[in-house]
Amino acid sequence: MDPSTAVKLVIATHWHDDHIRGLSTIFEECESAEFACSGAVQTDEFLELEEIYRMRPEIRIPGISEFSKILTLVKERSTSRIISFKLASSDKLLWQKNLNDGEFIKECKIHALSPSDASIIISNCEIARLIPREEENPTRIPALSPNHTSIVLLVEIEEDSILLGSDLEETGDLRGWSAILESKTRPQVKASYFKIPHHGSATGNHDDIWTLLLKSSPISVLTPFAIGNVLLPTQSDIERIYEKTDDAFSTGSPQRPTTKGRGSLVDKQIKEMGIKLRQVKYSSGQVRARGHYTNGEIGWKIDLLNGAIPLSKVYQ
Question: pLDDT tens, 68-87?
Answer without folding.
Answer: 788 888 888 876 545 578 88
